[in-house]
Specification:
By secondary structure, the protein is of the alpha+beta class. About 30% of the residues lie in helices and about 30% in strands.
């Protein structure tokens, strides 16, 4: 069963205009106006305009009379569509091999088998919405078993993210309004006149009278929403995409046969990349089944590669996840992300020492959960939580060096945790401390190491001080704790104690 994500961009036209013109006052209401002859009406309104009572579809003259100082800009559907296409291509490179535009205000993607790379469905949806917000775009996202259900939920719910568990689509959509069925407005109005109010009411009605009066469209949309009729997503493809395909006169299904043709496609893909001087960073295998459904596999690499054997192995390890059903009629392999690849002379194992290449291990682990692979690098800062950063596992050294004058714990807590301490002020180490409900008696201690605040970062750190101690309890465990302040002047800190790290 597929898992489909629908992203709804409710204010895409106004968000696009504000991104293109930062000089616009963010507090001034903004609406987009469409024209047809002498008639003008509102086709989009930002959040400020909606709060003032403006609505999509109202006459432009009425909107202007209701809000003094209203900013009105003519609609540009071509620019809106181009923006939506760029966002869809970005989502294709980040989230799933199967992504398409859901015009005019959304994106749809099949994330079955791809959500684990983002930490699961919950983290994937929240991260997706947050990334849109960081770009100045309002977004709501829903995930369900069908395109129709996800589309309806994203546009009917007030929450930013909605996750419908597998198999509960019918229960989730029964109370949705008829307008969520993607039917023409005329049909929706007629259905309401007949007394239908929700999707559940309509679904419980015999189909024959509905088909006789409204045609097959009503039944088709209901079947698509409930999953009784498949609705494949035709994935978007960039104009310069390197892609190879193989169609079969007779459907295939055996794992050995799939692997054989995947190997051939990888070889063709590498030849195409070689002609352009490129190496693949992310490749998508799209599987088209005879029952009009699509499956996909995504493989990523830490560096651009054109190694046929290695790319084949990355896909071969996951071929078992493909469910051929009644058969596969087409395979497509595309290099979604490709970068320049420069050939380099490898070292001779007879006369030179060759550094161990860990990128194959990074590739294997990355395809299991890419967000978990990173390397820790030092940052020029004395404040411990600012002295490290996460970088890509294959990134070049950034120039900073690790501090050697004081030992640092192998595990630094995300946030210092409050502890209860018995100690003499101002410079004596603790005699004992209580952390997470357990009291520990200090057997040895070293310190203090005084760390001053960075006044150029925040003015509140002008006189801030921390005194750090390395302590060992009677069980032999070693911890890194600090007191906020110098123990004398209250302006330097609260004199509270915190545990910041644990030594191996």
């Amino acid at each position: 069963m597929a898992r489909v994500v629908s992203v709804f961009l409710p204010t895409l036209p106004t968000d696009r205009i504000r991104r293109a013109d930062p000089s616009l006052n963010p507090d001034t209401p903004l609406v987009v106006i469409a024209r047809r002859g002498s008639k003008r009406w509102v086709v989009a309104a930002d959040r400020a305009a909606l709060k003032l009572g403006l609505r999509v579809g109202m006459p432009a003259a009425k909107a202007q009379a209701m809000v003094q100082g209203l900013t009105m800009i003519d609609a540009d559907p071509a620019a809106d569509l181009a923006t939506l296409e760029r966002l869809t291509l970005w989502a294709l490179s980040q989230y799933s091999p199967v992504v398409a535009m859901d015009s005019p205000d959304g994106i749809v993607m099949d994330t079955e088998g791809a959500d684990h790379l983002q930490g699961g469905e919950d983290l994937m949806l929240s991260g997706l919405v947050n990334r849109f917000r960081a770009r100045g775009l309002a977004a709501r996202a829903a995930i369900a078993d069908t395109w129709g259900a996800a589309h309806a939920l994203a546009r009917s719910m007030d929450r930013e993210t909605v996750i419908i568990p597998r198999g509960e689509t019918a229960k989730a959509v029964n109370r949705l309004p008829l307008s969520s069925l993607r039917l023409p407005a005329e049909i929706v109005g007629s259905l309401r006149t007949l007394g239908f109010a929700t999707v559940g009411n309509l679904a419980a009605t015999p189909r024959a009278p509905l088909t006789l009066r409204f045609g097959s469209e009503v039944g088709r949309r209901l079947d698509q929403m409930f999953g009784w009729l498949s609705e494949p997503i035709d994935p978007i493809r960039p104009a310069d995409l390197v892609e190879v395909q193989k169609s079969f006169a007779e459907p295939i299904g055996a794992a050995e046969t799939i692997e054989k043709y995947v190997r051939r496609l990888v070889r063709q893909l590498c030849l195409g990349l070689e002609k352009r001087g490129l190496g693949v960073r992310r490749a998508d295998l799209i599987v088209y089944r005879v029952d009009n459904t699509i499956q996909s596999l995504r493989a990523g690499t830490a560096r651009p590669v054109r190694d046929i054997a290695w790319l084949t192995k990355l896909f071969r390890d996951r071929i078992e996840k493909i469910e051929p059903g009644f058969g596969i009629e087409k395979l497509s392999l595309a290099a979604i992300i490709a970068e320049p690849l420069v050939e380099v002379q490898s070292a001779s194992c007879l006369i030179e020492e060759q550094a161990t290449d860990v990128t194959p291990l990074i590739d294997v682990l990355g395809n299991r959960g890419g967000q978990r692979i990173f390397r820790v690098a030092p940052v020029a800062s004395d404040v411990p939580e600012r002295s490290v950063q996460r970088i890509a596992p294959t990134a070049e050294d950034i120039g900073a060096t690790w501090p050697l004058h004081w030992p640092r714990p192998s595990r630094l807590l995300p946030n210092p945790e409050t502890i209860e301490v018995i100690a003499l002020l101002p410079d004596h180490p603790p005699v004992s401390f209580t952390w997470r409900g357990k009291r520990r008696r200090v057997k040895r201690a070293d310190g203090p190491e005084r760390i001053f605040g960075e006044w150029w970062q925040r003015s509140s750190e002008w006189v801030a001080v921390r005194d750090y101690f390395v302590v060992e309890d009677d069980a032999g465990e070693r911890f890194w704790i600090f007191r906020s302040g110098d123990g004398v002047d209250a302006d330097t800190g609260s004199r509270k104690w915190f545990l910041h790290g644990v030594f191996a």
